[in-house]
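Can't attach files on this board, so I'm pasting raw text. These are the components:
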Amino acid sequence: MSGFMGKILWVDLTTQTIEEEKFSEEIYKDYLSGMGLAAYLLYQRIPEHADPLGPENIIGFVSGLLTGTPSLFTGRWMAVGKSPLTKTWGDANCGGYLSLSIKRCGYDGIFLTGISPKPVYLYIGPKGAELRDASDLWGKDTRQTESILRERHNGKRIPGVACIGQAGENCSLIAGISHDHGRMAARSGLGAVMGSKKLKALVLAGVKPVHAVDVEKMRVLNHKPAKLTRFRLPVPDWAMSWLGKILRNPYISLRMDGILYLSILRKWGTVGLNQTSVEWGDAPVKNWSGTYSDFTEKDSKFISPGIIYKWEEQKYHCLACPLGCGGELRATGEIPENHKPEYETTLAFSGLVLNNNWESVMLINGMLNCAGMDSISAGGTVATAIEWYEQGLITKEDTGGLDLSWGNTKSIIELVRRMITREGIGDILADGSKQAAKNLHIRDTEAVVTAGGSEMAMHDPRMDAGFGLHASVDPTPGRHTTGAFMYYDMYRLWTRVKGLPKPTLLYSKKKTFVPTAEMGRKSVAMSEYMNLYNALGVCMFGTHLGADRLPLFEWANAVTGWDLTPEDYMQIGRRILTLRQMFNVKQGIKPSEIRVSSRALGLPPLNSGPNKGNHIDLDGMRSFYWSAVGWNIETGIPTPETIKALGLDGIINGEGA
Amino acid sequence: MAFKITEACQGCQACVRICPTQAISGENKEVHSINPQRCIECGACGRVCPFQAILTPEGHLAEHMKRTEWLSPVFDHKTCVSCGLCIISCPVNCLDLDDHNGRIPPESYPFLKRPNDCIGCGNCENVCPVSAIKMVEPSRVK
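---
Top answer:
Structure tokens for the assembled complex are below.
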């Protein structure tokens, strides 16, 4: 048994019972681990039309097949369950080191169901697993909770802790799960699922080793990615906005190469692209209605990489990561010691709301991490509220006296505070913008920019139509990590997988907005690869090096002793993707009704800026995608032939694998 | 696979005290036993046993060594990628990141923070993806 641990842990919080479940190697060969194993279990174990905040929902914490072996970029873990925000398959991906902590307890995943009568946390030590009283921790923020639990269980090993803060306890539908003092498994509202179950935290202090069949081969395979990741871009920070200006050429796209991208990440982290994205048209401005002329270079210089770099106390690497895109901020004044804001958080609380105060972004980032709230959804919801206020759809009476005009830093900070504590209007906004529109009886939902009910991340489909397509077709809607045409360039899958088209070095930008069969094939390949690397526990940034430079397929074979081809692994990716889609179908979701808000699709198009005139034919693109993946081209439901070809008919018919 | 204790055991409890996973049990002056479910094959019990009463998973007698002779890790910062696998994989939590010592960028590297806790298991060396760790005799540790 190599790579995988061969078993998972089930915890029923209602009955307070704990038991192990073992799996044969065949299951791992079909679904790998991580998101694949989660799809295999959640499809079968969560009943139809389950209440996401009810006892029948399951929250799972899964590791990856490659985690803990001598490989690189393989330290990602995922929280999984039915999302209370979108009512679809929900998952949240996170770094830190919890992924190995799960495996060191002897499990590939930990799954919890039921509802505990009182607050508890799950502790797993060398003597096994037990539920412990968390009454004293309930009400504490994520940093306090983790510090207390680390201190309490400070033995011979560092315990891995994942916990919720006030947002999760309050069942805010945009609550996430915190690990390592502020790394967030933020999306899908899975923190609310933990809160509904009265599960405050996991404390994982196991010490089991992870085995690999051919360690020496893995080390040889590591040479290339380790060497390529060392490259540091010899470019000053002021040049990053100019890079955006060059890229915003409306006619020609340059095939992206991940080596350049990773060199930016290595130097500055994700915030290295702040100004580039604003100028390029990747980052949405003014709740997706503005351009760089609304958030000018003068405004965005406050979030330039050089400014942020000065606040960085120490670089932060997730487990097994040679890149180190994270950073730790020193505590200053009101701003707590914390992880530095990522690109998404920074743009959500600067360009999206026209706020040009960098210190406030750091403060809000700290507040949200401590409360355990998703900064993408929080930022999107705040931007929506501001637009409503500016349009007169909500008034000072509704906001409790807050002047929610664009860029009002003090009001934005206060609004976030109220969302965390569910005070006044914050109580309504704490469940995201779509739910807020419903509760406030606002019929004109143009300002609500979501996909399937989840706020969109800071990547504009009007710049790269692939973001719009994948935000709609992936079983977890509204994600920027599921696919984009620039990702296809960087994945370089055509170098390893037969039959995939290689983009030319320069290609027409306008043509990427035209649905074609080739576009469908490329997009499905991206989805398969994404599902594959989430089953292996690999970081998306690592995969941007390219499939010929990051040896995922070879690592998987070296760890397990299998002899599968890249095509076999892509087939596994498609199997996981299709099973997640069937999860949605089982839960009563109609895939064709998961749409992206009109504004993000360019309906109507912007009349200025780098994305001027761009709009996305989502229906046309989805038809080609669904055709290529073997799902019904009108409904998006996997066809019986596809289900059978992927070997899923047994599970779908309730007969097991 | 796990280590085993033979009848030569005198029940001195040295292995009980050193085992990082609390896998060994037994009363004082009675033959001890190892729980194979908990054993991580670190070999510390074999090195500490004064009676040569420990069998390796391969069935060989583990060699008793003076604590001062146990191997310790040294780190090659030119090769190290600061990925932290060694730190999290250490069964006795004796490694940590240094405080970057003014490096630009502020990159931190692993070091042997608690040498007295190190059991010389070599787990860090085995898990390092870039071969930046070597287990050497203490006299060679700078």
